[in-house]
Amino acid sequence: MSEPILEMRNVEKRFGGVRAIDNFSLKVEPGAIYGLIGPNGAGKTTIFNTITGIYQADAGQILFEGRDITKIKPHEAAEAGIARTFQNIRLFGNLTVQMNVVIACNMHSSYHLGDALFRTPKYRRVTEETGERAMEFLKAVGLEDKAQERASSLPYGHQRKLEIARAMATEPRLLLLDEPAAGMNADESLELVEFIRELKEKFPITILMIEHHMDVVTNLCDACTVLNFGKTLASGTMKEIKENPEVVEAYLGGDE
After folding, report:
1. Where does the pLDDT of residue 255 fall: very low under 50, low under 70, confident under 90, or very high at 90 and above?
2. Edge to edge, what strands does the sheet with 59-64 contain?
3. Whole-angstrom Cα distance, residue 85 to residue 159?
4. pTM attached to this predicted model
5. Which range in 29-43, 52-66, 112-126, 242-256 is most confidently predicted, on average pLDDT?
6. Are strands 6-15 and 59-64 parallel, antiparallel or unpaired?
């Protein structure tokens, strides 16, 4: 078996006397789509925040591709190859769709401040290349015809796609999706499932996703961990999760 791309070992995160993450462990294999599910307040987003350095874990260890990233900073996580989206979409609403992606592409730009100030040939060349690269990502998510529209003018589902395109423009190897189907109806959720499948075919990425829509999780994820009050309730394949009586009782609704 290959080395996990992401491993969390007995991670804890406390806020005052509350343990948002309690002795949490996780292994995500390269190329997988792995789900995190659980009720609101179960600690799912806190886990994302500790992986990406927004929060620092109080105990335990987090490894990315075998490297200890327990104390990583957010910009270092992005540079290391970890990207994320948020439950509440965070776009530059007044900028064009293309510029939202260009900003992310610029993380890998090679020009310096002086080049930008004096608009040197290097700056002009890199700017043109970055614009073309941004269009490639927009084409990958089906938004190339919206490139010059304001991001805030896009329908909700397209804003989700744009946020994912922007995350992909940082060239991650691990993509964290925080409730990508939030606010979507059943038809939109099915479209999202197909979109994420196509994304996996186009890019060599591993996906860790938080999701409340069980149809999305069931149709996409190879395996899943169920959280409850910051602790692991169950882990396994989707078939194992759906047949686990504790999960059915605590999260999937018992006999209802």
Report:
1. very low
2. 18-28, 6-15, 59-64, 67-68
3. 11
4. 0.90
5. 52-66
6. antiparallel
